[in-house]
Design a protein that fits this description.
By secondary structure, this protein is α+β, with helices and mostly antiparallel strands. The protein contains 4 helices and 5 strands; from the N terminus they run αααβββββα. The protein has one domain. It has a 3-stranded antiparallel β-sheet with strand order 1-4-5, with helices on one face. Strand 4 and strand 5 form a beta hairpin.
Length: 131
């Protein structure tokens, strides 16, 4: 992947400048309870900083998923729909990456933070064997 392609995907995922701050302000106005409350241990400024850093972490994770998806595609793997559903349409699962090469299916669940919830890998496995 060329550097300019990489930067294009990065800039699409990680918005900065006035767009980011307008989005943050709208979020604060629409969801004031997320930033203040009687039983919050942290103050509003700390909650806002947590929101900003977590938002950036999530968007960076989405960016990495985009890069990995593109990489596997260029390596000749077939990207499959990552929204899995069991035949009865009751159980649904969204996985990060789902590829096919010849007759082999590949499932990738990506984690960007070391404290990221690891329970999803169990649900992916349970879902796979259930279907």
């Amino acid at each position: 992947m060329k550097y300019d392609e990489y930067l294009k995907i990065l800039s699409e995922r990680l918005k900065t400048g006035s767009d980011f701050y307008l989005s943050l302000l709208k979020n604060i106005i629409d969801n004031p309870y997320r930033y203040s409350g009687l039983f919050w241990y942290s103050n509003s400024v700390t909650k806002m900083m947590q929101n900003i850093t977590q938002s950036i972490e999530i968007k960076f994770g989405d960016f990495l998923e985009d890069i990995v998806r593109e990489y596997f595609s260029r390596m000749g793997y077939e990207n499959l729909n990552n929204k899995l559903m069991i035949k009865d349409n009751k159980d649904k699962l969204l996985i990060d990456q789902f590829f096919k090469s010849n007759d082999t299916l590949f499932v990738i669940e990506m984690k960007i933070r070391d404290d990221h919830d690891s329970t999803k890998k169990r649900s992916v496995t349970k879902f796979y064997f259930k279907s």
